[in-house]
Specification:
Layout (H helix, E strand, L loop, with lengths): L1 H9 L1 H21 L11 H7 L2 H8 L15 H16 L1 H9 L2 H32 L8 H28 L4 H24 L7 H23 L1 E8 L2 E3 L2 E3 L3 E7 L6 H20 L5 H14 L1 H23 L2 H10 L2 E2 L7 H36 L10 H29 L1
Helix pairs in contact: 2-8, 4-11, 5-6, 5-7, 5-11, 6-7, 7-8, 7-11, 8-9, 9-16, 10-15, 10-16, 11-12, 11-13, 13-15, 14-15
C-alpha cells in the first residue's frame, strides 16, 4: 500500500489531481463551518429526534444542517433535480431521443437542464426547511428581509457546492458529488466516534449487548464490501473471422453484472426524496383550508419512525431498479455484441440475448436492492430491537455504504490510471 501511494505521487498528473481534490475538500469544509447570519440555535437535537430522516440528510451534508451553515442543504437540491431529469427522460420522447441518439452531447444538455433546475429546487427546499425550523422552534422567527436573505444565501451555497462537484468530476478522480458527500461524512466521523464513546454505559447488563453490536458492525462492513465487489459473469464468445492469412476473434470473455450496479446512488436519491415532502409540508403547515390539513397530515405521517423506515426501504429498492434501468440497457449490450460478432453460448443473437441478459440482471438486482434497503434501515432496526442507539453511525445505513462505495470506486479508478500508464511505458 505504501509503495502504491509513493507511485501515485511520483506521477505528476495523478499527484495534481489528488491535490486538487484535497484543495476542494478544504474549501468545502471551510464553507461548512460558516454559520448563517442572525441564526440563534434552538432545540436542534429534539428536532432530529422527531424527524429521523433529517438525521440522514445531516449525514449527507457532512453535519452542515445542524450547524446552520451557509451550505446547510448540501447537494440535496442538485440531486433532486438530477432525479427529476432522469424521470423526464422516461416520460418525454424528446429528452429520451436526445439522450440516446445524440450521445455525449445529449447527456451534457440534460445535465445542463439539471443544473438550471437546481436553483428553483434550492429556493423551494430552503424556504420549506426554514419554515419547518421556525415552526418547530429550532430557530427564532425571521422577518421577511431576513428570510429572503437566508434563502438567497442557502441557494448560492448549494449552487457553489454543485460547481465544486463538477470541478472534481472534470479535473479530479471519481464522481464529484459522491466525493463531496464522502468528505462531509469523514469530517464528522471523529465527533461521532467520540460521542459514541461518551454515551457508552459500561455495566453488567449492557456489556454483552455492546459486544454483540460490535460483532454486527464487523459483519455488516464485511458484507457491504462483499456485495459491492460481487459480480455475476455472463460468458461471451466471439466468432472466428479469417482475413487473408490472419484469424480474428475466437476469444472468450464475459459481461460482468454487479450485484449492486447502482452503488450508493439509491441511498442518496432516497434520502433526498424523503426529505423533500417534509420541507414542502413545512412550507404550507398553518395555511387554512385543505392545503394546510394535507400538509399537517404529511408532517404527522413522516414523524412516525415505522412510516419513515418503510418508505426509506421501499425508495432504496425502487431507485436501485430505476438507476440501473437508466444506466444499463440490455438491448444496447445485445446490439453491440452482435455488431462485434459476439454471442452468449446457447443463446441466439439479437432479442433472445437481450431477454437473457435482462433476466439475469433482474435476478441479480433483486438481491442487491433488498440488501441495499436492509443495510439502509439497519441502524433503526437494531436501535428498536436493543434500545441502543450509540452505534447507529457505524451499524450501516447511508454513512457506511457511502464510505465503502466511494473508497472502492476511487481506488479502482486510481488503479486503472496506474495500469494505463504502465501500458504507455511498454
Amino acid at each position: 500500500m505504501i509503495e502504491k501511494v509513493k507511485k501515485i505521487f511520483k506521477i505528476p498528473d495523478l499527484r495534481n489531481r489528488i491535490l486538487f481534490i484535497l484543495a476542494i475538500f478544504t474549501v468545502f469544509r471551510l464553507m461548512a463551518n460558516i454559520p448563517m447570519p442572525g441564526f440563534e440555535e434552538g432545540d436542534i437535537h429534539g428536532f432530529f429526534d422527531r424527524f429521523e430522516m433529517f438525521q440522514f440528510a445531516n449525514i449527507l451534508t457532512g453535519g452542515t444542517l445542524d450547524q446552520f451553515s451557509i451550505v446547510m442543504l448540501g447537494l440535496g437540491p442538485y440531486i433532486t433535480a438530477v432525479i427529476v431529469m432522469q424521470l423526464m427522460t422516461l416520460v418525454s420522447s424528446r429528452l429520451e431521443k436526445m439522450q440516446k441518439e445524440e450521445g455525449e452531447a445529449g447527456r451534457k444538455k440534460i445535465n445542463q437542464y439539471g443544473r438550471l433546475l437546481t436553483v428553483p429546487f434550492a429556493i423551494l427546499q430552503s424556504y420549506g426547511m426554514l419554515a419547518l425550523f421556525q415552526r418547530e422552534g429550532v430557530i427564532e422567527p425571521l422577518s421577511i428581509s431576513e428570510l429572503a436573505l437566508s434563502i438567497i444565501t442557502i441557494t448560492a451555497g448549494t449552487v457553489f457546492l454543485m460547481w465544486l462537484g463538477e470541478l472534481i468530476s472534470e479535473k479530479g478522480i471519481g464522481n464529484g458529488v459522491s466525493l463531496l458527500i464522502f468528505a462531509g461524512i469523514i469530517a464528522s466521523l471523529p465527533a461521532n466516534v467520540w460521542q459514541m464513546i461518551v454515551d457508552i454505559d459500561i455495566s453488567g447488563e449492557q456489556i454483552q449487548m455492546y459486544l454483540l453490536i460490535l460483532v454486527i458492525i464487523v459483519l455488516v462492513t464485511a458484507s457491504v464490501v462483499f456485495v459491492n465487489e460481487a459480480r455475476r459473469n455472463i460468458p461471451v464468445s466471439y466468432a472466428r473471422r479469417v482475413r487473408g492469412r490472419r484469424v480474428y476473434g475466437g476469444a472468450s470473455t464475459y459481461i460482468p453484472l454487479s450485484l449492486n450496479p447502482a452503488g450508493v446512488i439509491p441511498i442518496i436519491f432516497a434520502i433526498s426524496v424523503l426529505a423533500l415532502p417534509s420541507m414542502v409540508a413545512g412550507f404550507f403547515v398553518g395555511v387554512e383550508g385543505i392545503v394546510g390539513t394535507v400538509s399537517e397530515a404529511i408532517s404527522t405521517f413522516l414523524e412516525n419512525p415505522w412510516a419513515q423506515g418503510s418508505l426509506y426501504f421501499l425508495l432504496v429498492v425502487l431507485f436501485t431498479y430505476f438507476y440501473t434501468a437508466v444506466t444499463f440497457d440490455p438491448k444496447n449490450v445485445s446490439k453491440n455484441l452482435q455488431n462485434m460478432g459476439g454471442f452468449v453460448p446457447g443463446i441466439r443473437p439479437g432479442k433472445p440475448t437481450s431477454n437473457f441478459i435482462n433476466y439475469i440482471l433482474n435476478r441479480v438486482l433483486f438481491l442487491g436492492a433488498v440488501f441495499l434497503g436492509t443495510i439502509a434501515v439497519l441502524p433503526s432496526i437494531i436501535a428498536g430491537a436493543t434500545g441502543v442507539e450509540t452505534f447507529g453511525f457505524l451499524l450501516g445505513g447511508a454513512s457506511l455504504l457511502i464510505m465503502v462505495s466511494v473508497v472502492l470506486q476511487t481506488m479502482k479508478q486510481i488503479n486503472s490510471q496506474l495500469q494505463m500508464r504502465e501500458y504507455e511505458k511498454i
